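Researcher: Please translate sequence to structure tokens.
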Amino acid sequence: MPPAPYTWGNTMKMVVRICGLVSRRPRVVMLALLLLGLARPSAAQDARAIVQRADEKVRGRSSEGEAAIQIVRPTWKRELLVHSWTLGNGYSIILIKAPARDKGTAFLKRKKEV
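Model: Translation complete:
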């Protein structure tokens, strides 16, 4: 009979069986848990792929946002109100809406060009 495929349910059954041996053989339990962890198939993901997938889920294909940026220096302070749009990682535009002297100024990004 072939071994059962790896599933969460099969793992839990194995853990329950192993825990039944705890009072009799603690070394067997530790060894079995170690081997159980090593026998699991890997997800074949590195940290960079995980972070990239998380960023894609948060960012989505496009985004739009509004933010207030406050700049505080020892002798002065300033506040900007900006509106931004993005399309993936390649394209974005940031439009300054306030203060009046900077209103209408925009920053464009296309691929690596700013």
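Researcher: Any highlights?
Model: The CA atoms of residues 7 and 40 lie 9 Å apart.
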